[in-house]
Amino acid sequence: MFKFKKFLKNYIIKIPRLYYLIQNIKMTVREFFDISSRPNFIGWYGMSLRTLPPWINTSSKSKNKLGQEFLHADRELRELVLKGEFRILQFEQYKNIGLFELLDGLMYRHYIVFWSAIIAANNTNSKLKNYVEVGVADGLCMYFTNKAITQALVDCDYKTYLYDTWGDVELFNQSTTGKESGYNYLDIDVTKKNLNKYKEYTVYKQGLVPDTFNGENEPNEITWISIDLNSAPPTIDTLNYFWDRLEDGGVILFDDYAQPAYVDTKNAIDFWTTQHSNATLMQLPTSQGIILKSHN
Ligand SMILES: C[S@@+](CC[C@H](N)C(=O)[O-])C[C@H]1O[C@@H](n2cnc3c(N)ncnc32)[C@H](O)[C@@H]1O
Q1: Does domain 108-293 have CATH number 3.40.50.150?
Q2: How far is the CA of 129 from the centre of ligand 1 (A)?
Q3: How many degrees, rounded to 5, is the angle at CA 40 between CA 258 and CA 115?
Q4: Residues 57 and 64: beta-carbon distance below 8 Å
Q5: Residue nearest to atom 24 of ligand 1 (CA)
Q6: Are 235 and 213 in contact (CB under 8 A)?
Q7: In terms of pLDDT, which residue wins out, 48 or 118?
Q8: Predicted confidence (pLDDT) at residue 15 exceeds the cutoff of 80
Q9: Residues with Cβ within 6 A of ligand 1?
Q10: Where are the domains of the chain?
């Protein structure tokens, strides 16, 4: 008799795409009939969790502190968006999806931004914590970074350095989309307004990376770097330029690391990591990647 389970186990598993397709069909059927099996979180790129995300309390007595602090930051952002005090031009490009729906899908991404900003500060020795983001757009990730520092860290002396063209730029993803232009709708004044509350801590470096890596008004010692360029060559330029200045215990966070459209960037980062023994890279289910710099 044909044993379907055995067949699945022995043969289909050798064809991952087919294996996951069958698993997905099974899961969809189960979720349709069994409410309790439906996910508690659905994020971008199909990330779906049946576990409770960290910002939802599992008990009325004990709360996940970081999860609650993150939730507070997320709620405040939504209020700012509603009042028109935080504009997300990137989301305004999506005509058929609501702003809050987009924010919902990005919550786990933002939770990791929030957590990484805290762990980087706690694991490094500097007195002044320098945070760098290369690829800033409207400042969404930097909103959560600033919130983490000011809300969850006690008396943290810090500065942020933000790099972007905030205007038309060529993106290089040779094996997927090739060379294309993007982001001409961005506006540095919108980003400045969005992050206005943190202006005394913020340095803007507008222009093309790596041209803006020019030594002017740049930090010598860095605690945390977020790289979110969606383009392979400037991602590696950024790693090469800042790696020696990243403190031991510091963090590099990559957005979109595992997204199929940016596979060239992933391959370049993976190769770069093999050349740097004190860089430990982990791929996260959100499609972000994180490098922790070990102490020598
Ligand atoms: C995905 S967006 C960044 C999103 C942002 N981190 C956030 O949290 O919403 C990518 C950004 O990288 C910038 N960018 C891409 N290539 C660049 C380059 N060579 N120099 C400077 N900026 C670049 C684009 O202008 C765009 O704002």
Answers
A1: yes
A2: 23
A3: 55
A4: yes
A5: 135
A6: no
A7: 118
A8: no
A9: 90, 135-138, 140-141, 164-165, 169, 171, 183, 186, 208-209, 228-231, 234, 255
A10: 4-37, 108-293
